[in-house]
């Protein structure tokens, strides 16, 4: 049976790369994004036949959107096996200038969005007795951030903790929950967050002297999503070029 994977924030950037790798590995893939039009455009680009992709609107700040997306996937393909909580808001406002409203906005997308995704999809997967959840954390959540804002770093640190919490909760039901913590990746988000003059300095500070590869992140997710990855749960996988070593 062809397995079904859903990726949040999949219309562009890293989410799109993740969706591409899942498709290449044989999955049916749900391209979800807060913009339905963007999700539909990406779905058409990745699979012109439409047989192995489904575009859905999913604003991760809304629990109702998660529930509606789950219902739509089950209606379309009968089941769901893999979830990648990827959607995020990246902001670089200096810590002393972050307003409470801006802090709440970033946390509601990054931290609460991942929490609700694990809760809604995790509950469904547990009833099925099988599932794989991968949460996108960040190096910023481990070292406090180098180019991103404090709200982004704090939310990504919380995702690492949430991953452990849901891993414990769902393990006995056949559902694994892991996180990936990328360092700076060659992506539109990194290019937008770091001015060109700072980017060169940032790359020089990376031990391997280059940005990460988004396709590799997708391939790692494919590995964590496989059936034989049952013994890996609650872990955070570091992909940061040697910036942070444990």
Morphology: globular
What is the strand tally?
A: 7
* Count of domain modules: 1
Radius of gyration: 17 Å
Unreliable spans are: none
Helix content: 40-55%
CATH class: Alpha Beta
How would you characterize the largest beta sheet?
7 strands, parallel
Fourth CATH level, the homologous superfamily: NAD(P)-binding Rossmann-like Domain
Q: Reading side by side through the largest sheet, how are the strands ordered?
A: 3-2-1-4-5-6-7
- The helix/strand class is alpha/beta
**Mean residue pLDDT:** 95
The CATH level-2 architecture is identified as: 3-Layer(aba) Sandwich
> What percentage of the residues does DSSP assign to strands (E)?
15-25%
Listing every helix as H and every strand as E from the N terminus to the C terminus, the arrangement reads EHEHEHEHEHHEHHHE
Keywords:
alpha/beta; 246 residues; Rossmann fold; 15% strand
Can you walk through the features of this model?
The chain has 246 residues and is α/β, with parallel strands linked by helices. It has a single domain (4-230), classed as NAD(P)-binding Rossmann-like Domain (Rossmann fold), CATH 3.40.50. 48% of the residues lie in helices and 15% in strands. It is built from nine helices and seven strands. It has helices at 13-24, 36-46, 63-77, 100-128, 140-143, 150-170, 188-193, 196-204, 214-225; strands at 4-7, 28-33, 53-57, 82-85, 131-136, 175-182, 236-239. A seven-stranded parallel β-sheet has the order 3-2-1-4-5-6-7, with helices on both faces. Helix 1 links the parallel strand 1 and strand 2 (28-33). Helix 1 (13-24) packs across helix 9 (214-225) and helix 3 (63-77) packs parallel to helix 4 (100-128). The relative contact order is 0.14. The mean pLDDT is 95.
């Amino acid at each position: 049976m062809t397995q079904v994977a859903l990726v949040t924030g999949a219309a562009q950037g890293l989410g799109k790369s993740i969706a591409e790798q899942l498709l290449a590995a044989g999955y049916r893939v749900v391209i979800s994004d807060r913009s339905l039009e963007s999700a539909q455009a990406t779905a058409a680009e990745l699979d012109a036949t439409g047989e192995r992709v489904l575009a859905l609107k999913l604003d991760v700040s809304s629990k109702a959107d998660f529930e509606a997306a789950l219902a739509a996937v089950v209606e379309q393909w009968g089941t769901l096996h893999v979830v990648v909580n990827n959607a995020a808001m990246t902001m670089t406002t200096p810590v002393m200038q972050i307003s409470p409203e801006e802090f709440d906005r970033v946390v509601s997308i990054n931290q609460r969005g991942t929490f609700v995704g694990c809760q809604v999809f995790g509950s469904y997967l547990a009833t099925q007795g099988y599932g794989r959840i991968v949460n996108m954390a960040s190096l910023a959540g481990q070292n406090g951030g180098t180019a991103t804002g404090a709200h982004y770093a704090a939310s990504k640190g919380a995702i690492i903790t949430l991953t452990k919490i849901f891993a414990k909760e769902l393990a006995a039901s056949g559902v694994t929950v892991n996180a990936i913590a990328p360092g700076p990746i060659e992506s539109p988000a990194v290019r937008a967050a770091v001015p060109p003059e700072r980017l060169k300095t940032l790359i020089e500070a990376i031990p391997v002297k280059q940005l990460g590869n988004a396709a590799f992140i997708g391939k790692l997710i494919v590995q964590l999503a496989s059936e034989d990855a049952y013994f890996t749960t609650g872990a955070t996988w570091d992909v940061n070029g040697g910036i942070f070593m444990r």
